[in-house]
Amino acid sequence: MLDDFFIRALVAGIGIAMVAGPLGCFVIWRRMAYFGDTMAHSALLGVALSLLFELNLMLSVFIVAAVVSLLLLFLQKRGALSTDALLGILSHSALSIGLVIVAFMTWVRIDLIGFLFGDILAVSRGDIDIIWGGGILVIFALVYLWRPLLAATVNPELAEAEGLQPERVRLFFMLLMALVIAIAMKIVGILLITSLLIIPAATARRFAASPEIMAVLASLIGALAVAGGLFGSLHWDTPSGPSIVVAALALFVLSLLPVGRGLRASESLRGGQN
């Protein structure tokens, strides 16, 4: 019989996967994988500030990730550097500043490994409430924003002409990413969040005939990766967060086999192909 902590970890991980799947689809379609890394790296700065000022951890991570998103939009409008250069600067700067702040706080014992790679087995019932509550909020927001988000992904100019306000929609998408990263950090850790966003969505792309089907499949594949990773971690006594990512990778590798290859949802979206 499975222990309570394992059941809690499974429920929490599936909750994150159900939300990360649809968001990850837009990350792939928009070629924003590096943006996901930047948001994830900024989480450590949020952790450091939460400990320094005794703030709620998830709230602090969300605020920092949101500020980084706004800063990126502001710098992009200035046009001084390319987007990938800006992302590189923001990503490594936020991560480094967070590490420096942590180093100065000698009076606080910090489990950096837990923050970097997650500790899903330590999830509490309160954490589950936050994860599923935040996840439901993100899902409802995605359903509401689905059409303008999809239109802005396919053709931003046409979306602008139709009055769908793609820049505002992009800002909302970034805020949703910040929220998911804040609630997912405890599950797979700062360094592995982007993997949970990207790998299930990349796997689903090979079998989906439409964007909506791809989003659903990405959630299901992510949930399967969580279950497989946790059971593998239990059986082989491996770290739970990395085990989940390895399980997701295994599913992606299996999807590369020629048997049963389906249509790609990204074929209906310009820019979704590599």
Number of self-contained structural domains: 1
Shape: globular
* Count of helical stretches: 11
Which CATH class applies here?
Mainly Alpha
Helix share of residues?
over 70%
Named CATH architecture:
Orthogonal Bundle
Instruction: Report the end-to-end length measured between terminal Cα atoms.
Output: 45 Å
Q: Can you write the helix and strand succession as a string?
A: HHHHHHHHHHH
Quantity of strands, as a count: 0
What ranges have pLDDT less than 50 throughout 5 or more consecutive residues? 260-266
Computed over alpha carbons, the radius of gyration is 18 Å
What's the pLDDT, averaged over the residues?
A: 88
Q: Which percent band covers the strand fraction?
A: under 5%
Q: CATH superfamily membership, which one?
A: ABC transporter involved in vitamin B12 uptake, BtuC
Q: Could you say what the CATH topology is called?
A: ABC transporter involved in vitamin B12 uptake, BtuC
SSE arrangement:
Blueprint: H1 4-29, H2 33-53, H3 57-78, H4 83-104, H5 112-117, H6 125-154, H7 156-161, H8 166-188, H9 193-204, H10 211-236, H11 240-255
Helix pairs in contact: 1-6, 1-8, 1-9, 1-10, 2-3, 2-4, 2-8, 2-9, 3-4, 3-8, 6-8, 9-10, 9-11, 10-11
Describe this structure in words.
With 274 residues, the protein is mainly alpha-helical. It has one domain (4-268): ABC transporter involved in vitamin B12 uptake, BtuC (Orthogonal Bundle), CATH 1.10.3470. Helix content is 77%, strand content 0%. It has helices at residues 4-29, 33-53, 57-78, 83-104, 112-117, 125-154, 156-161, 166-188, 193-204, 211-236, 240-255. The longest helix is centred in the middle third of the chain and has 30 residues, at 125-154. The chain is globular, with a radius of gyration of 18 Å. 46% of the residues are buried.
